[in-house]
Design brief:
Elements (H helix, E strand, L loop, with lengths): L1 H22 L9 E10 L6 E10 L19 E6 L6 E7 L2 H6 L7 E10 L5 E8 L5 E9 L7 E2 L7 E5 L8 E8 L6 H16 L11 E6 L39 H7 L7 E6 L6 E4 L3 E5 L5 H12 L66 E4 L2 E7 L16 H15 L1
Parallel strand pairs: 2-8, 10-11, 10-12, 12-14
Antiparallel strand pairs: 1-2, 1-5, 3-4, 3-6, 6-7, 9-11, 13-14, 15-16
Helix pairs in contact: 3-5
The structure holds zinc ion.
Length: about 425
Amino acid sequence: MYMMVRVAIVAVAMVAMSVDALAGKIKGAEAGVLRLDYVFAGSAGEKPVVALKRVVSQPDRHVDLTGRVRQLPLDGNGRVSVVDPVSLDTLYRQSFSSLFHEWMQTGDSTWRAYEHSMIIPVPEREVKVCLELTNERRRVMARHEARVNPEDILTRPVRNPGYDTVWINRATYPGRHIGVAILAEGYTRGEMAHFERRARETVEALFAHEPFSTYADRFDIVAVKTPSDSSGVSVPRDGKWRETAFGSHFSTFYSDRYLTTPNVFAIHDAMGGVPAEHIIILANEETYGGGGIFNSYTLTAADNKYFEPVVVHEFGHSFGGLGDEYFYENDVMSDSYPLDVEPWEPNITTLVDFDSKWADMMDETTPVPTPRAAKGEITPSVGVYEGGGYSTHGVYRPADYCRMRVNDIDHFCPVCRRAIERLILYYTE
Ligand SMILES: [Zn+2]
């Protein structure tokens, strides 16, 4: 009896030691987060510049960022890592994308600057924070390194701004949780009941999709009633400009339905008291559109009839790092993805390195590329269909129909489901 207890104590001590090795270097969710506000500047064809505008602390933003030391599931268009300068241990990693990357692809030679915020766990002592941006060929195009000291007297605490919040889903999973904030954009103080209804619809739509439904107990989702002076958001092509919480507008890069905001720092300031990392912004707007940027934010018009499929699609981008599986028939070839480079997005391929994608999910008898089924025929659940990532030729998608391609179906394809599941497991186990 005595021996058994003793063995049990030894086993517990060993587990505790491996957690302690990291716990001694970064603090847990109760300490809040540090936030690095960067500016990315550049123009098409020129080497961009990354500058650190400021480091702030958000002591009331209780997000669990521990455990992110393994290889990231997705490369994204940029990565940040927190390194112990003495032991060179990596204490935290995250990958991301940014509206800036899309600006670099517009072909415009004007130099422009974009905001980007990264949150990191609060370190016990000074750390090195390394940020890299990669180009469409997946080569590093800019690097930035900063020493960040948690005792720095110039690190300003950004406190909870005190907006009303409503819990939409509470995680019950015993491991780590994923925090999602739903923010209001273009809702006046008198319209918050309407916003809350849309926030609940968002979560219902998300949890109607696998794999989110299976893992619903790992998501903490909170709606934040961030008020705007105007009702609705800016629609530049109609000459409508409105004063809203995050200054979002349609016609990003002159694309009518592309709704984004340049005010990333403002979004993060609004999240001072919110235990969340992932961000969904609902725009009080009927005009069709939205946008989703990997580990940056989702922004969707919430009063359009396609709102539910669109918000889930955009969250597929911002949470899942998924690429668009649609393309434009009869369109001139788009060069978003160079055809001699395997894109990092898990659900599209140029076949340059298909083994790194969904080759293991293919039935041996399915031809590559897979012909589209004629009317009435049944297609294999996973194939390699030409057309995806905005290109008719040379980029391939895993399924004929998926949430990442069309609004009129109700699911993610098996490849997208697996990609999302991998991220959920990475964050929570
Ligand atoms: Zn898919």
